[in-house]
Design brief:
By secondary structure, this protein is mainly β. It is built from four helices and 23 strands. The protein folds into two domains: 146 residues, no CATH class; 145 residues, Immunoglobulin-like (Sandwich), CATH 2.60.40. The strands form five sheets. Strands 14, 17, 18, 19, 22 and 23 form a six-stranded antiparallel sheet that branches. Strands 1, 2, 5, 7 and 10 form a five-stranded mixed sheet that branches. The longest helix has 22 residues. The protein starts with a helix and ends with a strand.
Length: 334
Amino acid sequence: MKKGDRNILLGVAIIACIVGAWYMGVFDQFITGLQQKDTTKIITDDDRQNYLNGLGRWYLIESCSDSLDPATTRTSATNYKLYWYTRQGSAWLYKGTGTGVYVTLEPADAGYLWVVMSIPSGQAFYVDYQKIVTTNQYIDSYLYTDVDGDGVKEFAFQYNMKGQQLPSSGYPSITFYGFITTYDASFTGFNDLTNDTAIGQTTNTQYYSYYLSASAAKKGIAIWKVEVKITTTDESKVKLKKLNVPNIGYLDGSAFDKIYTATDYRYVYTIARSFDGANYVTLASNANNRFDMTLSLEYTLANSDDILITTTVYYLVAQTEASTSCTESFYAQE
């Protein structure tokens, strides 16, 4: 066979393979990855009524920024993950991930799309669910739940697809705006206080100017619990009057649970045990890096009393939801 004939046969074979692969769907995933919004669809009157009820095929776009630095965008599938779901009864139905995705909503979806956000392992961010809810006007509610059954809870936002603005042609689209907050892994904690060495034996109230400091601007922590520990078993000697907690304000001693051990008693105030409901304390650019935590104690000390007072703030590590803390102590002396 001549060389030219061999080349012709080879070319025919390659074309045949490509055509066969096309019909077998080998390139579907590749094409899906490059898909752009289809602008050729004409919206009929029937389509319009269905879309106004949240039914039909939608084009979904995602965007995510740093909560404390909106000009800084975060990277999908690296800094955060975003998934599109619908929910029928208690069943979560996965529809896709990322941006530029087409999803079809059915009557059983009740006109709602669910947007699930999580932080991948090793990424030092919190999902700013509060800002997400206030920024996206079509979010009706949210859940903090284990959507995919892997034992880890995620924030799931119920997005109302009814009454959306519709184009004259092309599939209608929505844009979900996500926000995440950078975790302050090097949070510096409390300022140091000196011992209070001349309290006396009469009943009196003292104030201590505690405050927290961040390690850098545009970062934050999620406080879930605060505690004041009194290292004595005689409750008559020291009572918690008030404690100022950032974003919450002054808490009266009666708002705290009291826990007893063999060597001390503790005033404990629990804010929330998870990312949902925790107290997010953040430092914005050019803001005062001082979060007031003034402590007020009432003393009735006896001769030679020397009591250790320890204040602890517990906060959640980003992504893992593990607890860590910062603490500061001083001695209260008669």
